[in-house]
Amino acid sequence: MTAAALVAWAFFPAPARSQQLARWVVNPHPEFSVGVMEGPESRMFDRIVGMTWLKGDRLAVADAGYQNIRIFEVPGQKDPDLVLGRPGQGPGEFVSIGGIWTLPGDTLAVWDPGTRRVTVFTQSGELVHSLVVEFDESAANLEVFHGSFDDGDAILGALSFGEDRAGVVPDRWEVLRVGVSDASVHPLFTLAGMRRLDRRPIPFSMMPLVAPSGDRIVTADAPGGEIRVRTGDGNSIETWSIPRPQTKLARDLQSQLLRRLESEGRQIYRDYIRAGVMPIEGPVPEMSAILADDSGRFWVKRWGGVDDSIWFRENALHPSPGGEWVVLDRDGRFLASVAMPVDFRPLVIQRDRVAGVAVDALGVQTVAVHRLLVSGSRPRP
């Protein structure tokens, strides 16, 4: 365990299984934020797809609209210390950034499904290499970044369509391990994806969830509260269960869905449901996101109703804003419950910092870093 992990573990000691969940709080006021509608381009964001922490409290932010990675000192100036990449298809250029992660030695890796390249930069911005990932036809849609192992290998997802069942087709999600130094590809396992009708997502389908931490991966791909724990080579070793919350989900999800569609002017989808064309029956997922922090804990977002529907999530691979989360330790023991700030989507958690994206009513994206509090006060080492 790293020194940082030991410090963070001291912040939040694991309770016994029989103890009641503690209540952690994310400060609603960010200690750092940057993002504007108009102004310097260095402070404008189009489509934030990933974040990762570097040494020295530096936060790298990947934008798939501008096709670059901006590195900010936190807290610090609003302008980035360094900008990596630009639109293009050459080495160090990007077509559609899919994810970023930190490698041993504090170098930075970028996955671009548009060019099928893994690109590595030093922390000072020098290009180390840009390797094309070769794969067979079964992984032709290798487009999803799920995270990385401690050795830097990436976890990628390849999407395909499953078997048609009375017009409803579930996605098939093949998860692979990709070597960052040699672009080697190793299949790990297959998950069930969201269900579709005429290639349109069914609103309460569950996206497959994948969260790596250290040498293991946790996954969930079924509506129930089951989380499967796997080794780094994909073998399943145990199963955890997320108990249902005390407060049940509203039973009028259909009415909520129709009202939301009407308020947003999405008439076609509303008509599909009223005509009985789009099925919405069936089990509602227990969870909608899983994140792993730098201390080996897993943060699980409980399903919160229509806001977690695939129809209303700005990025289907990111958590929906706000909501209730539970925190589990590496062995699946429950540590705490956490409420995220409204309109904030967490992407990466390091020690007592939660970094993510906030979106205002005008759709302006802001990078925000919030502090995690315990019993209303910031934890001390």
Description:
The protein is mainly β. Helices cover 7% and strands 42% of the residues. The chain has helices spanning 3-11, 253-263, 267-274, and strands spanning 22-26, 32-34, 48-54, 58-63, 68-73, 82-84, 99-103, 107-112, 117-121, 127-132, 142-148, 154-161, 168-178, 185-197, 200-201, 209-213, 216-220, 226-231, 236-241, 287-292, 298-302, 324-328, 334-339, 344-350, 353-359, 365-374. Strands 1, 2, 20, 21, 22, 23, 24, 25 and 26 form a 9-stranded mixed beta sheet that branches. The longest helix has 11 residues, at 253-263. The radius of gyration is 20 Å and the shape is globular. 39% of the residues are buried.
Keywords:
globular, mainly beta, 42% strand, 381 residues, disordered C terminus, 9-stranded mixed beta sheet, single chain, disordered N terminus, 5-stranded antiparallel beta sheet
Q: Short description, anyone?
A:
With 381 residues, the chain is mainly β. Helix content is 7%, strand content 42%. Helix 2 (253-263) packs antiparallel against helix 3 (267-274).
